[in-house]
Design brief:
Layout: H1 8-16, H2 24-36, E1 44-48, H3 54-61, E2 67-72, E3 87-91, E4 105-111, H4 120-130, E5 131-142, H5 147-155, H6 169-179, E6 182-188, E7 190-194, H7 199-202, E8 205-209, E9 218-224
Parallel strand pairs: 1-2, 1-4, 2-3, 4-5
Antiparallel strand pairs: 5-9, 6-9, 7-8
Helix pairs in contact: 4-6
């Protein structure tokens, strides 16, 4: 009898071969995340679920001299490109532990990852472990109240992105508290409006700033470890 159980590593390796060279939505997500947790020269950055290195590309294009370490469950996306010596990529599962010392990172970005992992609390605990006491991070998860997600649930449209969990503000706040982090504020991000049949799947869409919660495909959470963070900027996102 055939097994219908998915192998996570194999599934993400196959999915990685379909990633666009330029992730337009990913760029917007990171730009919003960097408003919540700005990056300056000389700091250490951990990027969990880095895919093709979108954040690394942004940092390099802006000439920011910082130490960057990206992690992804698949090594496929970041193969074959030259990166400076202060940029590193490692294939690993965040729930199994990152090869980073305790309190190493000034900034941790974990965008659209928590909903994919089998043990979300383990991922949060690992983020708290690698983050400095005065560091800050940004977590991002799909918005369960986004109009597209509500419609997909009503129409019983199967997930194609590997999402196995959904989080409201209440669950994310509790998850962070159990994992050693504190949610400081949240931010809406963007909506993708298709202009052709199956436009989002075919890359035929426009990106607009979300003005209302139901418009935002994801919600970003600014977090810290509960101490006095070095810089907690106001967000205009």
């Amino acid at each position: 009898m055939p097994s219908h159980r998915w192998n996570a590593k194999q599934w993400y390796d196959e999915r990685a071969t379909t990633y666009a060279a330029v992730d337009r939505v990913g760029i917007k997500r990171y730009e919003y995340a960097m408003r919540l947790a700005p990056i300056s020269a000389g700091i250490r950055v951990v990027d969990i679920g880095c895919k093709t290195g979108t954040l690394a590309q942004i940092l390099r294009s802006r000439g920011l001299e910082c130490t960057y370490h990206g992690f992804d469950i698949s090594e496929v996306p970041f193969q074959g490109e030259y990166w400076p010596d202060n940029f590193a990529f490692t294939q690993c599962d965040v729930t199994k532990g990152l090869p980073v010392p305790d309190g190493w990172a000034d900034r941790v970005y974990c965008l659209e990852v928590i909903e994919h992992v089998r043990e979300p609390l383990a991922a949060i605990e690992e983020i708290a472990r690698v983050l400095k006491d005065d560091g800050i991070g940004v977590l991002s998860v799909p918005n369960p109240y986004y109009w597209g997600n509500l419609l997909s649930n009503v129409l019983r449209i199967p997930d194609r992105q590997g999402h196995i969990s959904a989080f409201t503000w209440i669950e994310m706040d509790a998850l962070c508290r159990f994992g050693g982090l504190k949610v400081v504020r949240t931010a809406k991000v963007v909506d993708m409006i298709p202009y052709a049949w199956r436009g989002i799947r075919k890359g035929k869409y426009i990106i607009v700033k979300a003005l209302f919660s139901w418009q935002s495909r994801c919600t970003q959470f600014l977090v810290h470890k509960g101490g006095e963070p070095e810089k907690m900027p106001r967000s205009n996102a």
